[in-house]
Amino acid sequence: MADEDHDFEGTQSGASATFPMQCSALRKNGFVVIKGRPCKIVEMSTSKTGKHGHAKVHLVGLDIFTGKKCEDICPSTHNMQVPNVTRKEMEVLDLSEDDYFSLMDDGGDIRHDLKLTENCTPAGAEAVRELLSSAEGNGERVLASVWKAMDEEVVKDLKTAKAN
Fold first, then answer.
1. Comparing C-alpha atoms, which of 151, 141, 137, 154 is closest to residue 100?
2. Which end of the chain offers a freer environment for a tag, N or C, measured as fewer CB atoms within 10 Å?
3. Contact by Cβ (8 Å): 141, 9
4. Rounded CA gap, 31 and 28, in Å?
5. How many CA atoms lie within 13 A of 52 on its CB side?
6. Are 144 and 101 in contact (CB under 8 A)?
7. What is the pTM of this model?
8. How many angstroms separate the CA atoms of 136 and 105, rounded?
9. First and final CA of the chain: distance in angstroms?
10. What is the rounded CA–CA span in Å between residue 85 and residue 38?
11. Mean pLDDT, rounded, for 51-69
12. What is the percent of the chain where pLDDT is above 90?
């Protein structure tokens, strides 16, 4: 028994990407997983109980990464998965020629792995470069709101702030 090899390399923090919530407890502007994608609920309606006794909830959501519309109908007493969505503000240092952001977090760590998407506000690489140059000219800095859910990350929007 003592000569067995054990591999414990695959440890994680233990935080799950999703958690269950009863369908009737979901609210508009909240988050839910529809068809395997993290979505923001934009519309919700509940039907009356039918002959089998379950009220149905009709959910319409927008994928938080692609903006695509997703719909689902489930009994109000059933559980649906809710994604753990985290938002983090990072300072934008630059936007590369191939539209990857250079971002710095509060600890000074720099990352270059997030690409500009069509769901970012302002839209388009030229608009982002214009925002960066105007902020630099005004002595301001540009902050990116980075959303993370279900092992995906995206820059959602950019805003200017006073430089420290």
1. 154
2. N
3. no
4. 8
5. 5
6. yes
7. 0.80
8. 18
9. 59
10. 9
11. 90
12. 65
